[in-house]
Amino acid sequence: MRHGEATPMHSDDVSRNLTSVGQQQAEKMGLWLQKMHAPSGLLVSPYVRAQQTAEAVKKNNTFLFEETCQDIIPEGNPQVAADYLETLIALHPECDTWLVVAHMPMVSYLVDQLCAGHMPIFNTGAVAQISYDETRHKSDYITINAPANVDA
After folding, report:
1. Contacts of 22 (CB under 8 A, 6+ apart)
2. Which of 12, 32, 66, 86 has the largest count of CB atoms under 10 Å?
3. Which parts of this chain are annotated as the region Disordered (predicted)?
4. What string of pLDDT tens digits covers the 152 residues of the chain?
5. Where do the domains of the chain lie?
6. 16-149 — its CATH code?
């Protein structure tokens, strides 16, 4: 998931907040996620707008595992992030559906690392759906859903 709409860039990208629209996007996608996927594992960027997005999603979802991860920041290494996510999946079998809340371009690059040849562009608040087969360490890209295109 890409974070919701954020305030314009200033001198400190890390501290940018969600706008009221971004908060609404995150809440809407949180409702949609609860109805469609009920994620139980959460990995979130330390940046304020991603943390705020995760908090909005958590209003309607219960996570068995949550972690803030320095590897999923905008300039992070997508291979490291994908490897770390796969490690968490293996270590936490109680979590059958995972949500990663991060940024462009990381979210696009992460999808490409998991599903080679698929690098969707994420609108703010959008969620890409991926099916992951842990036994084969293989992922299949399903689709991407944006707040404007879902019913919550």
Report:
1. 3, 4, 5, 6, 49, 52, 53, 124, 125
2. 32
3. 1-20
4. 999 999 998 778 999 999 999 999 999 999 999 999 999 999 999 999 999 999 999 999 999 999 999 999 999 999 999 999 999 999 999 999 999 999 999 999 999 999 999 999 999 999 999 999 988 889 999 999 999 999 87
5. 16-149
6. 3.40.50.1240
